Amino acid sequence: MTKSEKQTKYIFVTGGVVSSLGKGIVAASLGRLLKNRGLNVAVQKFDPYLNLDAGTMNPYQHGETFVTEDGLETDLDLGHYERFMDIEANKFSNVTAGRIYKEIQDAERRGDYNGATLQSIPHFTDALKNNMKRVAQTTNADIVITEIGGTVGDIEGKLFLEAIRQMKKDVGPNNVFYIHASLIVKLSAAGETKTKPTQQSVEKLREAGIIPDMLVLRTEDPISSSIKEKLSLFTDVPAEAIIESRDAEILYEVPLNLQAQGMDDIILNKLGLSAPQADMKDWRKMIDSIRESERHDEVKITLVGKYTEVPDAYISVKEALKSAGYASNKNVQIKYINSESVNEQNVNELLKDADGVIVPGGFGNRGIEGKIEAIKYARVNDVPFMGVCLGMQLASVEFARNVLGIKDANSFEMDAATSNPVIALMDSQKKITNIGGTLRLGLYPAKIKKGSVAAKIYGDKEQIQERHRHRYEFNTDYKNQFEDAGMVFSGVSPDDNLMEIIEIPKNKFFVAAQYHPEFLSRPNKPEPLYLSFIKHASQK
After folding, report:
1. Which of 122, 177, 334, 454 would suit a FRET pair with 429, their CA atoms being 20 to 30 Å apart?
2. pLDDT tens-digit readout, 347-372
3. How many CB atoms lie within 10 A of CB 525?
4. Residue whose C-alpha is closest to residue 400's, from 486, 459, 309
5. Distance CA 268, CA 82 (A)
6. What is the b/e burial string over 483-498, where b = at least 16 CB atoms within 10 angstroms of the residue's CB?
7. Count of C-beta atoms within a 10 Å radius of residue 531
8. Residue 476's Cα: distance from chain center in Å?
9. Distance between CA atoms of residues 216 and 197, nearest Å
10. Torsion of CA 71, 519, 279, 326, to 10 degrees
């Protein structure tokens, strides 16, 4: 490396004791602090799953699948990174063990290894380290924060720990910082706070050759100085580098809580970086507006979906709705209804209190008829409606059935034998048999029709770009019939072949998009379609 080349610094976040400690929120919050200090920060997530990516993973197990601009299907933590930091992740921002194995095997088949015997070390670990360096190169980052999925001690995570251990040797000890997130256990019956699980978790990390520079402790109560001193004695982590991560009333308060404990100062001192203190005034104003919105009028949004038992399955939708509420000074309350429970007999009762109805994305035919009933209820009763991806497709099916009178209209995804596939595969997709990696993914442009509701929503822009994740498209053979009956196709692809936005202008608000607008929403910068939906739902 020449003197003129920038040495990227690497921060690694591991977790111990239990999963779901909020490592992703810690990484995202730290990223926001460092970004506000004027540093260029990239964040990535390493997952030890054998899946190639998150595209086919069950939402009941892993929550939503987030999509980057360049079309990578990722873990939901990437959504936290983007929302907290207002950045765009890329295809190197989420790496699974399956993807690394595939990279190695593809390279071996090409002859890249010149006949070498491939081994976990160095070939797997080298591939991991190359992905760390790629995200730095593709973002010109000063600092890369890498979250390691899973829990220290998991057998599938050992090679990931070995790779981040080696990074200290590869780039130098002054260019690497290790953060270990752990749990402080409180035994309520005994009234005692226990540090032993964290001690043992750090010991597991040390067995992997990693001594953490900082502990971030998930705790319900404040941690006393005596507990910090005890942990410092057993873990070799300085007491001042032991940080509390307590539950926050508002999620976006976490960066401020970490800043108050000097987290970013400690890290930059160790890495030998100097930067102005993070200016969080605008962030504080945003939190004040969030707190203020909770005292304003409620707007009741009913979300009708098939994964409603797991709110993380719709976490970006939830955050986008809430963000639109913050900007509108409204207290958005979301009611989740499982679409399998909705039918023609009970839909009026289930949705009678809704100020707005949203049908989000999804795959497969389970619960589809319930979603269609909810869409019909919103259309007929003129309740503000927003459809996202599958929600747009089913709004088209509902319109075909109940307005055009095509009673057997359906999506090819739900019924391959339907004689009226209002939603169908494009010709180029008909020979595809795999379900993973065959979607229209990532950022695509859409032309906006002048004078339409969509044009007003997007500030009369002639073209927008939004992120997609779907396989089926509106069948343009039916386009004229829809338009004759009052449906407007207000967003289309530049070549006019793909329908991106549909709307019914005579309704107060009935707009559905083929893309996922929630992926572009930020807590202090709501996506326009969500903002318009909440504003119309507020007009009771």
Report:
1. 454
2. 999 999 999 999 999 988 899 999 99
3. 14
4. 486
5. 22
6. eeeebbbbbbeeeeeb
7. 22
8. 31
9. 14
10. 180
Here the tokens at position 299 are 């707007």
Q: From the centroid of its chain, how far is CA 86? A: 12
Beta bridge partners of 441: 469
Query: d(Cα 306, Cα 435) in Å, to the nearest integer?
Result: 19
Distance of CA 264 to the CA centre of its chain: 24
**At 248, phi and psi to the nearest 5?**
-105, 140
Q: In this structure, what DSSP letter does residue 72 have? A: -
Give backbone dihedrals phi and psi of 94, rounded to 5 degrees, phi first.
Answer: -140, 115
The whole-chain average pLDDT of the chain stands at 93
Q: What are the angstrom distances between the C-alpha of 520 and each of 40, 319, 438?
A: 20, 11, 22
Paired tokens of 273: 């970086």
Residues involved in catalysis = 389, 516, 518
Cβ atoms 21, 246 nearer than 8 A: no
Query: CA–CA separation, 466 vs 446, rounded Å?
Result: 8
In a 3-state reduction of DSSP, which class is residue 22? coil
pLDDT at 294 over 90: no
Phi, psi (rounded to 5 degrees) for 238: -55, 140
Reading the block at residue 192, the tokens are 């005692």
CB 394 within 8 A of CB 372: yes
Cα–Cα distance, 196 to 227 (Å, whole number): 11
Angstrom distance (rounded) from CA 90 to CA 71: 8
Query: 88 vs 85, 91, 443, CA distance in Å?
Result: 9, 10, 11
- Neighbour-count burial of 220, counting CB atoms closer than 10 A to its CB (0-12 exposed, 13-18 middle, 19+ buried): exposed
